[in-house]
Specification:
Largest sheet: none
Organism: Ovis ammon polii
GO biological process, one term: mitochondrial respirasome assembly
Keywords: Membrane, Transmembrane, Transmembrane helix
Strand content: under 5%
Number of helices: 3
Radius of gyration: 25 Å
Shape: elongated
Distance between the termini: 51 Å
Order of helices and strands: HHH
Helix content: 55-70%
Structural class: mainly alpha
GO cellular component, one term: mitochondrial membrane
InterPro entries: Hypoxia_induced_domain, RCF1
Length: 106
């Protein structure tokens, strides 16, 4: 007879396997997705995010170039442009997130 405070597990714990959660599938896609495929899929889902990232990188690069050449006015302008591009990227991420949430609702 077991003692009342003791609980016996139903199945042994296997740390090499992911836990089984009812109604949850850890992988949406049946095949393994590489970096290139995932990048292309994410870019198609929300094309404004990569555009914002490229704009941010371009403004930063040109701003640093102008700073190095001693063009402080142009450098300041490009740093402000970088901030605007970062804001655009954040807004694009939030809009894409809201759109995908609304699309996934039944």
């Amino acid at each position: 007879m077991e003692t009342p405070g003791r609980v016996t597990p139903e199945a042994p714990f296997e740390p090499s396997q992911p836990p089984v959660i009812e109604g949850f599938s850890p992988s949406v896609y049946s095949t393994s997705e590489g970096f290139k495929e995932k990048f292309i899929r994410k870019t198609r889902e929300n094309p404004l995010v990569p555009i914002g990232c490229l704009g941010t990188a371009a403004a930063l690069t040109y701003g640093l170039y102008c700073f190095h050449r001693g063009q402080s006015q142009r450098s300041q302008l490009m740093m402000r442009t970088r901030i605007a591009a970062q804001g655009f990227t954040i807004v694009a991420i939030l809009v894409g997130l809201a759109a995908s949430t609304l699309k996934s609702r039944p």
